[in-house]
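Our preliminary data section would be incomplete without showing what the modeling component actually yields. Below, a chain of 303 amino acids is followed by its predicted structure, encoded as tokens that our downstream tools consume directly.
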Amino acid sequence: MGSNEVASNEVDRKFRFLTAYKDGRVEIHYSTQKTPPSNDPNTGVQSKDVTISTEPPVSARIYLPKIIDPTQKVPVLYYIHGGGFCFESAFSPLFHSHLMALVAEANVIAVSLEYGLWPERPLPGSYVDAWAGLQWIASHVKGNGPEPWLNDHADFSRFFMGGDSGGANMSNFLAVQIGSYGLPGVRFIGMIMVHPFFGGMEDDEMWMFMYPTNCGKQDPKLKPPPEDLAKLTCEKVLFFFAEKDHLREVGGIFSDDLKKSGYKGAVEVVEHDGVAHEFHLFDPAHDKSTSLVKKFASFLNEV
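Predicted structure:
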């Protein structure tokens, strides 16, 4: 082995999801698989992919529940997947199966965001893409947007937003932006935080590494201050926690901070004992996974 090869394999930084080498290479520890959209003849749920932006590339997978009456309007869920900002996809088998099941159970339209991943899209790129997705959804409020499913069937008086892990973090960022700037024509009912990622643990260093212009461990995206949380205008927030999740502690701190911030909405916490991070994606047939989907769905239908 030559000296150049040795040097090229010298590790600069190693994190939970990635390794950075001193020669500038990066290695993501997890691969991302993708599956095409599909229709479920048993539930009647349909899905298709749409382009939100070409530069930067942002897209989404939209899910439509079984529609009996062509004039029927149903709630809207904006969903942002997790994956440490550097892997996974709205088009992955895990998230596709989860959204198909959730839409069938809840009878809602879901827009699942496909945002740019690090390193091709350094942070805060994912947050910018998520905001673009939100604006694209809101462009359908008057029934004249680019997507017929939203024009014809979206009830924007029943709008929900949420995600898992890093996607939950981005959902909170968007909720703060809505609180600051508004979202005309949209009634923001609730936010769903599944195993959310926030600051206060070793993964902070990885997040800051991916976000060169960050403001340190007190960056408001990583550690939202009380004055930001108090801006939330959604009427309720639902947290899902897993006992063995490495993010359980920081998620609990965030939910406590939200309750203390002056936020005027309702906060509900659902805890699943004996299971780990994202258990519902990896074992969807588990009784606690089906329970999570049912609770998620009921939250979307309680207005």
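The two ends are 65 Å apart (CA to CA). The mean pLDDT is 96. Preliminary results of this kind motivate Aim 1 of the renewal.
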